[in-house]
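User: Fold this; tokens only.

Assistant: Input:
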Amino acid sequence: MKLPSIDSARFSCCLLAAVLILSSVGCSQEEKKRNYSVPEQLCGLDVGGKLAEPFMPPGDRVHQAEEGGGVSIWHCDISVDDKAVFQITREWWKPGWSARRFAPSQAYVEPEHEAADESYVYSDEGAVAALRCTEEGNDWDLFLVARVRDAGVPDEKAMGKFITAYRAEVLKTDPCAEE
């Protein structure tokens, strides 16, 4: 007995749908992995790789490049497979600016949260911390900026933890004495 052609068409459609579903499941299992270790020392400070890890995407190799060291600005770019993922900046700036004021105008960070003592602000893609060097007799204050770059992974909770730890590590170096 021969099946009607309508059932053959349904069978063919169901078979095609099953093949497509199975092939898409196979592709999703081949997710990219992080094939590198996040450095424990980040841009010259022992901040710890665990704090930067949430911002780091899958890839094969990580690279850090420091630039500056001049009088007013220094930055360190972190890339994965030659794509910018994270940047840390230290910048001397005029006294009297708050971290909240500095963030959008100078660091291109839109702060969503602020520390109770107003020493730092952060969001999922960036953070700014202010160090009051003018209180120690210097002419400038130091601002620390952390930013997720184009290929990085935004993470609000991790950014708050990172800027807190990074600020604490920078304070250990007596940064106001460098000015």
